[in-house]
Design a protein that fits this description.
The protein folds into 2 domains: 55 residues, Arc Repressor Mutant, subunit A (Orthogonal Bundle); 134 residues, Orthogonal Bundle (Tetracycline Repressor, domain 2). The chain is built from 11 helices and no strands. By secondary structure, the protein is mainly alpha-helical. The termini are far apart. α8 crosses α9 and α9 runs antiparallel to α11.
């Protein structure tokens, strides 16, 4: 009679997840500062304290690693839970919550570093990176905002004929000139700039609500 020993999960799994997280953290630090072409898998492995083989085993290739790093950064700054919580409460309060988070995210120095890196790589003939940034950043945010506004219209809180266009208008109001100021390195006093980011977000909400309030 052959004894059958039940297999238990090995101790390596938590370490695998720790390594994956370390690789992502390294990628999120390196890509914004050195660009896509300037960031090698060797550099990511060294920054994460793992072998290059481990990086490839977790992410397959550099494009996949870049996408995952970009996706995680976007979802950390603007998580799904933000929109769910905003949807559950009063309209103005929910829009203010989204507006402050979004305005802060698009003017964050690390986010701006990612934009600069991608724009530089696009100039060198690498348009797929811009497409990745668009899908994970602005396009995702537009979709989330469109859904938020659609629910508000169906509730009777807003009156909007073209919800997609309105979502784009709201996101444009949130950026104002501040995204460009950060992108071009024209920020002087950091504290004053952060106050202006919040004030611009709050003013955008009030303007939007006046434009699309139920008549």
């Amino acid at each position: 009679m052959v004894a059958i020993t039940a297999r238990t999960p090995g101790p390596g799994r938590p370490k695998d997840m720790e390594k994956r997280a370390a690789i992502l953290d390294a990628a999120k630090r390196l890509f914004p500062h050195h660009g896509y072409e300037g960031t090698s898998m060797d550099a990511v492995a060294a920054e994460a304290g793992v072998s290059k083989l481990t990086v490839y085993s977790h992410f397959g290739d550099k494009d996949s690693l870049f996408r995952e790093a970009l996706r995680e950064r976007c979802r950390q700054a603007l998580p799904d839970s933000l929109f769910e919580a905003a949807q559950a409460g009063p309209l103005r309060e929910g829009m203010l919550r989204i507006a402050r988070a979004h305005a802060s995210a698009v003017t964050d120095p690390e986010a701006i570093g990612t934009w600069r890196a991608i724009l530089g790589d696009c100039k060198q003939g690498n348009p797929r990176l811009g497409q990745l940034m668009w899908e994970e950043g602005p396009a995702r945010m537009h979709s989330k905002m469109e859904h938020f506004l659609d629910v508000a219209v169906r509730r009777g809180d807003l009156e909007i004929d073209d919800i997609g266009r309105a979502a784009g208008q709201f996101l444009a109001l949130l950026k104002g000139d501040l995204h460009a100021m950060r992108l071009f390195g024209c920020v002087g006093c950091q504290e004053g700039f952060e106050r202006e980011v919040t004030a611009t977000a709050e003013a955008a909400v009030e303007m939007f609500l006046r434009a699309y309030a139920k008549r």
